[in-house]
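Quarterly update from the structural biology core.
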Amino acid sequence: MIRLGVDGRELVIGARTGIGRYVIEVLRAASQDGWHCTVYGNRSTSLDVTLSGVTLRIVDRRWTQWWDQVTLPRQLAQDRTSVFLSPYYKGPLRAPCPVVLTIHDLFFIGYPGSRRPFYDAFMTRLARLYARCATAIIADSEYSKRSILERLGINPAKIRVIPLPLGSEYHEQPLTDASRVRYGIAEPYILYVGAFKPHKNLPRLLQAFAGLGESHRATHQLVLAGGDPSARPTFQELARSLGVADRVVFPGRIDDEDLPALYSGCALFVLPSLAEGFGLPVLEAMACGAPVIASNHGAIPEVVGEAAILFDPENVPAITAAITTVLAHAETKATLRQRGLVRSREFSPDRTARQVLALLREVSEGRCAPRPNS
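Predicted structure, tokenized:
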């Protein structure tokens, strides 16, 4: 029997992330296949799902590097772990079992346009060390794989492209009146869901919204959901300066159980990022029946295929034109909706999570060709 170890520190109550969803779907698939799984976490970790054969082990916290490089490897040895999966770019450098890393993107090294040369150089060397010591690496997309090869100089045979799994909870659901009131949303609305970091390109989205014709701008809200609360005042001030403050809503983080309905109820979903290692929100939105327009940068084009209208995220008029095209043409909206529903089915949690399990099995059985330090 395979004894799978998983870094579960992303699993924190009230803070479910894309990485956390990825971990849960892999654990669910492993549980269904009868694997014995141990989730390693710290005092903040909580496994809020019950899965057969999956246990949570709280490992002495101390400081992060000690947890990664000393305490965790000792525990893996004691548990006779067959293979260890990290949902991050880092893992134990000297582990008693094969280690598989998941590098979703390289934004921890530097966002587009960032100016941190010394920090980025240090993080590049560190990421290269982790990657070379791992037995295999999972990349979410071909775009991420190319970035890893260019920045880290890793043997291409070591990298396996496996897309993120789309949670089964993402399907069309009605947006209740209670949810509208709770989040301050009125239909119709244009939706963005995600962080407020620089590469998310929200200033240009606000500018594009302000550039809409009066009929669309006066009748639609722009809902910017999620994000860092500390960054919100900057965008609120920009909305005021653009004269659209009364049409822009900042509902904060959306509860997991409400998010599918929020996607389902929008007139249009927009992802204007300058770069994405994958772009999970576009898939979530499509699975919930939302028409999607998105940036033509990063991994987004390979994720959406022909199911979305793509635009240059650095061209504000192009973003405005894409929004207008969907809002003004019911046939376009219906076509995008149908294409999105079909496209999203290609990323079912069972299909993608099982690709991860197949790789983990290969690694645990020594069938992964590249050796560590390559």
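The chain has a mean pLDDT of 92.
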